[in-house]
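Please decode residue identities from the backbone states below.
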């Protein structure tokens, strides 16, 4: 009798252990549990930790609540200014309603991926090339809004959307490089012109000061000679005033033509000698 009771107790203990082993479940901290009993959703979400379900009657689905990083494959499209580009992006999202993520959509990861690709192609067609290259923050916000609107019905919240890279054709890259080079050259010319303008103003002021004090020009000339001689060059460049050349040109007499009368200088204030009329009489040499 005692042996039968002992055997029954052991069998009952084994049965309880098997039942507990089949009914015990563990939900991790970053997960939530959804229980279906005979195919019908049970109310309430199982929190993290140890939980129990009915064997053969209940089925537990665990939903990850961590932020998911989903890369969006590169999408090729034509921008609003008719430029062919390839754009790829990345989507950060998380599940906020585990029940809707399991019931409302078959595979919420695949659904978010397809929605992100469709929205990215739509953004490419509505944007200019300059916006894709320099105004990405606004495009990221618009792309996030386009994906988040249908995803809320799936129990998914879009945390952030970022455009990673914009690939351009080689011809477009060369054209943009030439444009940037021309723009840099234009700015360099403007800077040089502005420097010349400022230098001309300073030189004009210096010329006005030197015109009042002629000795200042001589001192400046001597300083220039000293600066050139300090370089130990074999050739010394000496500036020569243009006014002196003009003075020497006016003081040099004009040489007379061979066999002709000597030119007479006009009297101060008098009329200049008249030139012979075309076709008039000319002196001929005597004939033998």
């Amino acid at each position: 009798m005692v042996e039968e009771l002992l055997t029954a107790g052991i069998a009952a203990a084994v049965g309880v252990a098997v039942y507990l082993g089949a009914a015990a479940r563990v939900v991790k901290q970053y997960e939530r549990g959804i229980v279906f009993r005979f195919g019908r959703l049970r109310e309430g979400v199982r929190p993290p930790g140890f939980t129990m379900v009915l064997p053969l009657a209940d089925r537990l689905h665990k939903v990850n609540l961590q932020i998911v990083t989903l890369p969006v494959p590169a999408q090729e499209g034509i921008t609003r200014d008719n430029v062919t580009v390839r754009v790829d992006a990345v989507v950060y999202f998380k599940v906020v309603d585990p029940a809707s993520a399991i019931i409302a959509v078959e595979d919420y990861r695949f659904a978010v991926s397809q929605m992100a690709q469709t929205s990215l192609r739509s953004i490419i067609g509505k944007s200019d090339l300059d916006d894709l290259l320099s105004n990405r923050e606004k495009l990221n916000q618009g792309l996030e809004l386009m994906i988040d609107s249908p995803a809320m019905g799936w129990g998914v919240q879009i945390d952030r959307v970022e455009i990673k890279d914009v690939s351009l054709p080689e011809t477009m890259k060369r054209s943009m490089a030439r444009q940037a080079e021309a723009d840099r050259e234009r700015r360099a010319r403007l800077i040089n012109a502005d420097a010349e303008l400022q230098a001309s103003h300073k030189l004009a002021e210096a010329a006005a000061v030197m015109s009042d004090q002629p000795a200042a020009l001589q001192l400046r000339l001597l300083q220039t000679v000293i600066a050139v001689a300090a370089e130990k060059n074999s050739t010394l460049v000496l500036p020569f005033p243009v006014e002196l050349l003009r003075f020497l040109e006016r003081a040099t007499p004009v040489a007379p033509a061979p066999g002709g009368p000597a030119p007479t200088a006009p009297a101060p204030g008098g009329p200049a000698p008249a030139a012979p009329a075309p076709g008039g009489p000319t002196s001929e040499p005597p004939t033998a």
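Observation: Residues 170-212 form the longest helix (43 residues).
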